[in-house]
Amino acid sequence: MTTKPPPGPRGLPVVGNTHQWARDPCDFRERCAEEYGRVVNYEIIGWDAYMLTDPDDVKRVLEDTDTFPKHDSSTDKLREIVGDGLLTSGGDLWERQREAIQPAFFLSHIENYAEIMVERTADTTDRWRDGGTVDLRDEMMRTTLEILVEAMFGEDIDLQARGIYDAVEAMQRPLKPQNQPVTFLAPDWAPVPFLRRANRARDHLDAQVYDVLDARRRADADRDDLLAMLLDADAEMDAEQIRDEMLTFLFAGHETTALTLTYVWDLLSRNPDAEARLHDELAEVVDGRPTIEDVFEFEYAEAVVKEAMRLYPPAHEIRREPAEAVTFGEYEVPEGSMVLLPTWVLHRDDRFWDDPETFRPERFLDGEGRADRPEYAFFPFGGGPRRCIGQQFAMVEAQLVLATMAREWTLDRNYGDLELSAAVTLQPKGDVPVTTERR
Ligand code: HEM
C-alpha cells in the first residue's frame, strides 16, 4: 500500500495550530476528527501532533509500549515536579517499580481503605450547613486528598499542620490551564513566581515524606498503608525512590478523582431522574454508612460514575512518542512526533454512543449494547501495561464518597453550564458554587 502524510487543519507559520487549539482544545479536536477522520496532523506549542480517532489504533498504541513510549518532553516537565515515579519513569525502572507496587492496589488491599474513604467524607459533610454554599471542586479536592494521605501514610498525619494541602496545590499549579504555556515555554532561568513556589512546595513535600519515612523505620509498627507496602516490597527501594513514588501518588491520586466527583454532582444536579434512580439504589443497598460490600452491589452508582467520566474524562487525552516511523492504514506518522489519543473525542463519538451529549448512566448497565462497542471507545484510565494503577482505588472511592454524601445531602448547582478548560486534566473554569441541602 502506498502511504501518505495524514491531513489536518492549516496552521500559521511558527505557532502552527496553537491559536485554534488554545481557544477550546476539546472542540478543536472534535472538529478535526469530524473533518479529517482516522489520523489528523496538527502543530501545537511546537509539537508535531498526530491525533488517532480509531479505537483499534488507540488499542495498538496503548498496548505496545516499546514502539509507543510516553511522550518525552511532556513527561520531562512532570518529572521536574514529581521525580522518577511510576507516572514518569520508563524502561526497566518502570517495569520493576510497577511490579513491586501493583499488589498495593489489589482489590483485597483497597478494601482496607473503604472505611477511611467513608470517614473522611463524613468529615467533609460535617462542615456543611443546610442551605449553605460551598465550592464543589474545593470540597471534593480536600476530601480526596485527605483520603489519599491517610491511605498512604496512616491516620497520624495532620495535613494542615504539616502544610501538605497547600504544598500539593502549589505543586500542581504549573499545570493549570492558564499557566501551562509559560510552564512549557519559559526557559529554566526565568523567574516565574508559580514555578518557584512549585519548587519550594516540592522541597517541602520531600522533607515531609522523608520525615514520615524516618519515623516509620524507627517505629517498626505493623501497618497496612501504602507506605508500609512499599517498605515491604520485594524490590529494594531506596529512600529517594520511595519519595518519588509517594510524590507521584500525591500528584496523580486525588485530583482526577475529585474532578470525577465534581462532574458527577454537576450532572446529577442537572438530571433529577438519574438522581432519583441513584437514591432508589442507595435506599435498597445501603444500611447506615456505606461499606465496601455495598460497592460490590452497586450497579447504578457505578454507572453514574462511568457516565460522568465518559462525558468529562479528567484525563482528556493521552500522549505517546513513536520510537520509530509507523503507519496507521495509509497514513505515515514519523518517529519522535507526538501521538495523541483523544479520550474526549472517542467518548463522544456517535459511531459508538447514541445521543453522545446526553447524560444517561443506563448505557453502562447490562443489556444496552455494550458488547458492540469497541474496547477503546471508553478508556478514562488509559490501557495496556501503563493503565492507571489506581483505577480500582478511584472507582471504589468515587462510589463511596458519592454514596456517603448523597444519602444525606443534595448538592444543587443552579448556575448554568460548567465551562471547562483542558490542561493536563480537564478542569472547570473558575469556581463551582453549590448549595448544600440536607435531605
Ligand atoms: C478518576 C480517577 C483517575 C483517573 C481518571 C486516572 C487516569 C489515569 C490515566 C488515563 C493514566 C494513564 C496515563 C498514560 O497512559 O499516559 C493514569 C496513570 C496513573 N495513575 Fe491514575 N487516574 C485516576 C486515579 C488514580 C489514583 C487514585 C491513583 C493512585 C492512588 C492513580 C495513580 C496513577 C499512576 C501512578 C499512574 C501511572 C501508572 C503507570 O504508568 O504505570 N490514579 N491514570
Could you list some keywords that capture this structure?
binds protoporphyrin IX containing FE, three-stranded antiparallel sheet, alpha+beta, 439 residues, single chain, 11 strands, Cytochrome p450, four-stranded mixed sheet, globular
General description of the model:
This protein is an alpha+beta fold. It has 18 helices and eleven strands. Strand 9 (420-422) and strand 10 form a beta hairpin. The termini are far apart. Helix 6 crosses helix 7 (136-153) and helix 10 crosses helix 12 (239-252). It has a single domain, classed as Cytochrome p450. The chain has a four-stranded mixed beta sheet with strand order 1-2-7-4. The longest helix is centred in the middle third of the chain and has 27 residues, at 193-219. The site of protoporphyrin IX containing FE has 23 residues, from helix 12, helix 13 and helix 18.
